[in-house]
Design a protein that fits this description.
The protein has three helices and three strands; from the N terminus they run H-E-E-H-H-E. The chain is an alpha+beta fold and 90 residues long.
């Protein structure tokens, strides 16, 4: 019986579509134990630097991230804090 891939591994695989120059993922789920929706997915912080964000406003950057993550946003992620920068801003 195979084990489901770790959520962080899936995040990295999906975000590879944005060709990040740097990518840091922190799992903050333990800090939210007992939270009303804690069992419906993890809490993550994401810092990503990619040329795909150049010239785009914050909302457009977040949409790029959400699009890349797809169904993970409904299945494995309950909360996601995103810090998305272009290479010039990093």
């Amino acid at each position: 019986m195979s084990q489901a891939p770790d959520t962080e591994v899936l995040l990295r695989e999906r975000l590879a579509a944005l060709a990040p120059l740097s990518l840091d993922i922190a799992d903050d789920s333990a800090a939210h134990a007992g939270h009303g929706s804690a069992g419906k997915g993890g809490h993550y912080r994401l810092r990503i630097v990619a040329a795909a964000f150049a010239g785009k406003p914050r909302l457009a950057r977040h949409r790029l991230v959400f699009d890349a993550l797809g169904d993970l946003m409904h299945a494995r992620i309950h909360a996601l804090v995103i810090d998305a920068k272009s290479p010039d801003e990093a």
